[in-house]
Amino acid sequence: MSELDISRLPKGGKGFAHDFAADQTTFKGVPWGKAMMWIFLLSDTFIFSCFLISLMTARSSTIAEWPYPSEVFGLTIFGVEVPLLLIAIMTFVLITSSGTMALAVKYGYERNRKMCAWLILATAIGGLTFVGMQAFEWSKLIFHDGIRPWSNPFGAAQFGSFFFMITGFHGTHVSIGVIFLFIFARKTFRGDFDTGRRGHFTSMKSDYKAIEILGLYWHFVDLVWVFIFAFFYLW
Amino acid sequence: MDNEYNNNKIETKAADSSSGSYVPPADNIPASEIPEQELYHAKSFWTRWVFCQDAKVIGVQYALTATAVGLIGLVLSWGMRLQLGFPETFSFLGPATYYQSVTMHGMIMVVYLLTALFLGGFGNYLIPLMVGARDMVFPYLNMVSFWMFLVAVLVLISSFFVPGGPTGAGWTLYPPQAILPGTPGSEMGIVLMLVSLSLFVIGFTMGGLNYVITILQARTRGMTLMRMPLTIWGIFTATVLALLAFPALFVACIMMTLDNLLGTSFFMPEIFTMGEQLGTTGGSPILFQHLFWFFGHPEVYIVALPAFGIVSDLISVHARKNIFGYRMMVWAIVIIGALSFVVWAHHMYVSGMNPYFGFFFATTTLIIAVPTAIKVYNWVLTLWRGNIHLTIPMLFSLGFIVTFVNGGITGLFLGNVIIDIPLSDTYFVVAHFHMVMGIAPLMVIFGAIYHWFPLISGRHLNQTLGKIHFWISFIGAYAIYFPMHYLGFIGVPRRYYEMYDSPYMTTGVGLNQFITVAALIVGFTQILFLYNIIHSAFYGEKSEKNPWKANSLEWHTPEMPPAHGNFGKDLPVVYRWPYDFSVPGIDREYIPQHVAPSEVPTAKVEKT
What we know:
A: Four Helix Bundle (Hemerythrin (Met), subunit A), 8 helices, globular, B: two-stranded antiparallel ribbon, 4 strands, 1% strand
């Protein structure tokens, strides 16, 4: 049953329609949770798109000067003004954590419990570092530069509003991800995915596929960050 | 791997060729692709009936909550009508109360009643039964979805009791007026409204993911997408729309909440209020309108598409005829759903946007008329020479077709920029959207309740009360909304607290009183309907199994009402679409979906 006979399906567009409307499952061999995560992420994409399109509208229609990101997000290290330094490190950490997540999924499917758990833990710590640096960035902008959600000394008030809202919303996503990563690290260390121990809330068994599903979420959060990075820091 | 699947034996019954030269096709049963779903079994009263994970119970919980909050919306409409019809008599209805009633009535009816009832109520109850699943794929998430919805409703209701009362900004909640002093409820009411909407979106997303994945990934053997009842197609497409449209509302709610609480300027331009300049600067109120209507227009179809689907099934079952053009119906639903995302700015013709932009949206809007007309033709052609049983669900279905055509045609007027501009913000608009997305979907909801009540409770609703309910609701709805078209034509603006002695009222005199009386009569008839439901649930005439002789799987469960797990020991196997009525060549009048071809070898049916 694990091998589906796809050779008999029609080719081309007809094949696509046939495949899509096929018996029992539309996405063959895809677990329910994974399909759900993809569709949730599609919905979440619309949320972030609305945020970013609103940002673009505001930026192109505001009457006041839009602040120059290299100055606002600069960091002075040993007396040298380095633009975008903190953001560069944050982005690096987050993208790296995506790498450890991908490795965790790989070791999970290989049933290498220890390695998988350590990599999930590494991912969680990467995420936590990111959130910590974001908190540092926020506090610098608020207390040092005097940027507020409703105003900022550099120009258009919408800059602060959108910055805190969008990075805050993304940071919430990362934080939720970090919480789940820690929970999953514990579950993996304990061997829940090997023994089929039941979930506390859902009372359902789960297996290593769950790690891939969490990984999808984590990669999505990273991908969104790339767009936020481009729109806020590079534009 | 193989031992995980206990029901994947490919059984191929030999064709019975003894009945002559006709050789029926072998009953091809595909192997099971999904393992048997592990169910959560409730152990106590609380987990069985309150914090329940069974989609059927959740569906009923959704429906009851939506109905309860819908009753509040109904009572609010009475207040509005009393004020409009008899402005001198009811002095306790001040302008603020009037605007609050308008706002809460609109939001409750569109989001908390219709959306929740169609998707949360009918969706939860019918999807697992109709696609042949034991439950939704994530029962726990499904339960959380309902409780989130309940919290959203409670937050909304709580806004009636805060200082300043609920928001009176109109259901569209346009800034800047929604959050400025002078608008009723600009203190706490608007915040609670926005929070409630955000919670609704979060709760709905949990449920919506369940509906979509159950339909896509958990169908029973033989249930291809093109064998699903149109009810499921309607609910499925509406859920996809909701998952993609609600994000815009969610974002708009967050931004407006921040504008209100933190004093940001997302939607707030530089503005003077009460002689003082506010601290806001440079925001765009039009941005809110774009976000709101990017949600708001698909929302119309979130309500309409399940109605389209359900009414197709009702018409087919009660006219004993297969649905005309099933594939066309499916594609029409999908195309309407897709088009609904590129028409939103037809709600904004008078917002000051570029006229050419308006013509683009007028074009896309009018294109929607094509698949919609296909659907109407197909309903009528299904009825054509059908064996029409004038049961109550059929009466409501017929009422739906007529009302929907009426509301749809006025939609063609309003979709054109040049006709819309003079009619904008008049009672013509009120009449249009009440006809097309108020009365028409409600007709389907009523029909669906009369149709599926025996399944849910095992008893019939009272037929006499049902007929009274239908005729008063149907004729009453026309008595209410037909005059409103006329009021709109002579220029009566909507959302006015009182018309005073304005020139409009010289020719329209008496109409407002007439509408009010009709509205009160229709409103009280709904109380009769509720009495019918409550009374029949306990004392109604007992229903036999499958009272309407329908084909779809929900009527063919071992027990009626269906038990936990829906289908007993083995899930049904599906061989055909649910519309094999009055098939030539056999002596039975209908062939349920799970009847194998070898059982009806002489039936002359198309292969579906």
